[in-house]
């Protein structure tokens, strides 16, 4: 028998429903599709209730950031590319009263194709030194 925790494919679900409509018993169907009888029974019950073979939507945790929040983050990143994830999290808290971990923001930006990087360090050159360098170069 197959592992009872594997997802039953759409083709097997359709086969189960077709075999039941042909008048087969649950045990016969279970033997044919090589699945536990309880799984066959569950597929038939859910089909009878929903009239659909698809997996019901809404399984799993809902995302904390909506599409609107992600668009807000993208707009802020375009305006200020060097802004850090913790600062973006604070701005989201102030703007929309949503408290999220900075890693959640990094994940959302990563999904949209943005990658984090560290800016190259450059020495500070005062206006006085810029003028001296320019005179030297000329």
Keyword list:
single chain, 7 helices, mainly alpha, 138 residues
Q: Can you walk through the features of this model?
A:
- The protein has 138 residues and is mainly α.
- Among the domains are: 10-50; 67-111.
- It is 58% helix and 0% strand.
- It has helices at residues 10-21, 26-33, 37-50, 67-79, 85-96, 102-111, 127-137.
- Helix 1 (10-21) runs antiparallel to helix 2, helix 1 crosses helix 3 and helix 5 packs across helix 6 (102-111).
- It starts with 9 loop residues before the first helix and ends with a helix.
- The mean pLDDT is 89.
Topology:
Blueprint: H1 10-21, H2 26-33, H3 37-50, H4 67-79, H5 85-96, H6 102-111, H7 127-137
Helix pairs in contact: 1-2, 1-3, 2-3, 5-6
The span between the termini is 84 Å
Task: Evaluate the radius of gyration.
Answer: 29 Å
Shape by Cα distribution: rod-shaped
- What helical percentage do the residues reach? 55-70%
| DSSP, total strands | 0
Number of helices: 7
Order of helices and strands: HHHHHHH
Structural class: mainly alpha
Strand content: under 5%
Instruction: Point out poorly predicted stretches.
Output: none
Report the sheet with the most strands, covering strand number, pairing sense and barrel closure: none
Instruction: Summarize model confidence as the mean pLDDT.
Output: 89
Concise synopsis of the structure shown:
With 138 residues, this protein is mainly alpha-helical. The chain has helices at residues 10-21, 26-33, 37-50, 67-79, 85-96, 102-111, 127-137.
